[in-house]
């Protein structure tokens, strides 16, 4: 063997046409270094790739380091709710979309204002775990609109390699609609049986030299009625997406969305330890006054530039800001006598509360070959700053109310306002990720993030720490449509600030290290049906109270389970989306002050959840389809002491769609019935809160394409 053969240097080579990077470049219109004929051939392959899946599934995700990858190349559980599913179900809320994925449950509050979600029993953090287009952390404290979204993705488990300090519940990614190649002008209208009504305009055009620029405008407004007494409100949306192919190597895009919701907020019910869990009352009752409003608005701006450096390397620069402001008159009903239903209503006032996220990222992706190994490399740097502020007033307490027969609550003025403790958190990091391919069958994925975290809250001493988060996965692809994987991840998450009731009040705790192991299999059938099965094991440290009444990290909960999902077309007439979760979660370590929690199931964690949604396209009547769904959440503990459990529930949805033409105008007519059996049930729980589900709602809609 010659010297040059024994010690060959790494060589840069064009990526295979099936490479995720080439597919991403081609789909974005960014192939520039290759000859025109080659670029055209790659674009053709992307079209074939995109058509392989069914209408209820997809062949690429845009979240974390797995941007634009086929789900079979992602060594974690991921779920995808497509635009087709959202349209078929008439989904208007995040919970309406995410109920199609296993392990999803509402936490603490109801869904009349916004959706507070947990996945696998782990809370999805409202300021860190929701992302716009795989990047910008938006603030989920107002119903996130779906009218301008193409799909909703969920990447479950630890995600610190790409997103910094986030809980291991998973990342919820909302992908916006992009400017279309052909003109779009669609007017959507709907009304529901309770008096709610809305209208939505979706408009898209390409313009400029050869259509190098494009806009997509989504505007919506409507009256909010959900079937509750003493409830009304309104919401609106303005969203603009703009793309610009500056030249053959540079593509720029920006998303701007502003939305608002001003509605009455129903009271939460507080469980009183020692009493029997109350049955949910009539799902139309509201224990708060109509004047107790939840008035919130959000503005999200995200800009991204993709620069093709060569056939094998691309640079991405992106920056954005998300800001949410709200005024809130939140109330809780506290039982005095469970037998008679007598109790008191406590009202809490918050004004000018604002949450702001500023995020920036630079990322270089490319490929090189070292001997028999092909490396697809990602190098990135990111910075995120989160701030919060606001004012609060002393709670108004002791207002007489009855659980079974709510009285009208007259308007009550707030007391003296004082500023909430402002907070500022900075999370900066650099990361490297290498997908190594050993021939056609084996892939090894290895990455690490080095981060610097700083937390400042009020006058407390700032806390600062440096850390790293490793990630290792192995994928074996028996063939292009069947893959097996195993992964190990370590992730960091914030643990909070000691409250006034603790001896170390004001102390910022150090981040906790979560550890996750997962093995799984993914397959795509010939019809495009995607199947997934996985076993996961998550070890999550938790806060507790020590013998000296100090707020410390001293506990741990383990979450283990098997998750199954299937989505896509079953032949020409059927489409199906199904998921199931079988989980065993346990508190395995506690502090001395919390000994009674040892061995319990963590609060709001169901051992069984499943969902099934199917649509049938009637063969004899072109354009007509029928659909239905079942959504089950198992019983859940109201707190970590397991002092009570909310019962399991199953809701039913029904729907039908009909596509036709009125003259030259394509028209779609639709009806959806949610909670078809009008069941009374506890939708959310945790920290002793109880929240009821909404009543049966019939919604009819019509859309017109011009």
From TrEMBL:
GO terms classed as biological process: siderophore transport
GO molecular function: siderophore uptake transmembrane transporter activity; signaling receptor activity
Keyword flag Kinase: no
Pfam families: Plug, TonB_dep_Rec_b-barrel
Localisation: Cell outer membrane
Motif TonB C-terminal box, residue range(s) on this chain: 689-706
Membrane topology: Multi-pass membrane protein
Entry GO CC: cell outer membrane
Keywords: Cell outer membrane, Ion transport, Iron, Iron transport, Membrane, Receptor, Signal, TonB box, Transmembrane, Transmembrane beta strand, Transport
NCBIfam families: TonB-siderophor (TIGR01783)
Annotated family: Belongs to the TonB-dependent receptor family.
PANTHER family: FCUA PROTEIN (PTHR32552:SF82), FERRICHROME IRON RECEPTOR-RELATED (PTHR32552)
Protein name per UniProt: Putative metal ion receptor
Organism field: Thauera chlorobenzoica
């Amino acid at each position: 063997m010659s010297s040059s053969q024994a010690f060959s240097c790494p060589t840069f080579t064009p990526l295979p046409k099936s490479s995720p990077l080439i597919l991403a470049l081609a789909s974005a219109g960014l192939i520039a270094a290759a000859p025109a004929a080659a670029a055209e051939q790659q674009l053709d392959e992307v079209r074939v790739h995109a058509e392989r899946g069914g209408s209820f599934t997809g062949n690429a995700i845009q979240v974390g380091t797995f941007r634009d990858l086929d789900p079979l190349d992602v060594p974690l559980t991921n779920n995808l709710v497509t635009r087709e599913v959202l349209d078929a179900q008439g989904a208007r809320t995040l919970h309406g979309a995410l109920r199609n994925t296993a392990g999803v449950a509402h936490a603490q509050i109801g869904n009349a204002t916004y959706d507070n979600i947990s996945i696998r029993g782990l809370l999805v953090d409202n300021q860190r775990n929701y992302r716009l287009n795989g990047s910008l952390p938006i603030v989920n404290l107002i119903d996130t609109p779906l009218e301008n979204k193409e799909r909703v993705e969920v990447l479950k488990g630890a995600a610190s390699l790409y997103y910094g300090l986030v809980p291991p519940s998973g990342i919820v990614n909302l992908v916006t609609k992009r400017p279309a190649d052909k003109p779009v002008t669609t007017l959507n209208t709907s009304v529901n049986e309770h008096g709610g009504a809305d209208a939505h305009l979706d408009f898209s055009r390409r313009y400029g030299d050869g259509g190098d620029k494009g806009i997509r405008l989504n505007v919506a407004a409507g009256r909010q009625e959900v079937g509750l007494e003493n409830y009304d409100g309104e919401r609106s949306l303005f969203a603009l997406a703009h793309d610009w192919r500056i030249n053959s190597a540079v593509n720029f895009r920006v998303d701007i969305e502003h939305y608002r919701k001003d509605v009455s907020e129903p009271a939460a019910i507080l469980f009183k330890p020692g009493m029997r869990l109350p049955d949910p009352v009539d799902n139309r009752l509201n224990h708060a006054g109509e004047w107790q409003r939840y008035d919130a608005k959000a503005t999200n701006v995200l800009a991204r530039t993709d620069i093709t450096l060569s056939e094998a390397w691309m640079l991405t620069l992106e920056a954005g800001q998300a800001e949410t402001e709200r005024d809130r008159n939140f109330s809780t009903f506290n039982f005095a006598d469970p037998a008679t239903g007598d109790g008191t209503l406590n009202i809490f006032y918050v004004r000018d509360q604002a949450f702001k996220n500023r995020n920036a990222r630079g990322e270089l992706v490319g490929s090189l070959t070292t001997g028999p190994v092909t490396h697809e490399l990602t190098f990135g740097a990111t910075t995120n700053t989160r701030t919060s502020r606001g004012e609060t007033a002393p709670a108004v307490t002791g207002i007489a109310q009855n659980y079974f027969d709510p009285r009208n609550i007259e308007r009550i003025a707030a007391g003296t306002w004082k500023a909430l403790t402002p907070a500022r958190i900075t999370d900066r990091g650099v990361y490297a990720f290498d997908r190594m391919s050993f021939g056609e069958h084996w892939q090894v994925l290895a990455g690490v993030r080095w981060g610097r975290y700083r937390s400042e809250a009020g006058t407390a001493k700032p806390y600062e720490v440096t850390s790293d988060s490793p990630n290792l996965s192995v994928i074996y692809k028996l063939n292009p449509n069947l893959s097996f994987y195993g992964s190990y991840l370590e992730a960091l998450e914030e643990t909070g600030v000691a409250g006034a009731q603790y001896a170390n009040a004001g102390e910022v705790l150090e981040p906790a290290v979560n550890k996750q192991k997962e093995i799984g299999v993914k397959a795509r059938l010939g019809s495009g049906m995607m199947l997934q099965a996985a076993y996961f094991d998550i070890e999550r440290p938790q806060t507790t109270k020590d013998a000296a009444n100090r707020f410390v990290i001293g506990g741990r909960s383990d979450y283990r389970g098997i998750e199954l999902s299937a989505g896509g077309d079953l032949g020409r007439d059927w489409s199906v989306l199904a998921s199931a979760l079988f989980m065993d979660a346990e508190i395995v370590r506690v502090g001395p002050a919390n000994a009674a929690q040892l061995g319990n199931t963590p609060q709001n964690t169901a051992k069984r959840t499943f969902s099934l949604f199917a649509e049938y396209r009637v063969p004899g009547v072109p354009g007509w389809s029928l659909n239905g769904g079942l959504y089950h959440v198992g019983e859940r503990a109201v707190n970590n002491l397991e002092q009570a459990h909310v019962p399991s529930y199953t809701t039913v949805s029904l729907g039908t769609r009909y596509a036709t033409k009125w003259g030259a105008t394509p028209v779609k007519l639709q009806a959806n019935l949610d909670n078809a059996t009008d069941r009374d049930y506890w939708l959310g729980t945790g920290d002793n809160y109880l929240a009821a589900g909404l009543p049966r709602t019939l919604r009819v809609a019509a859309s017109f394409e011009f």
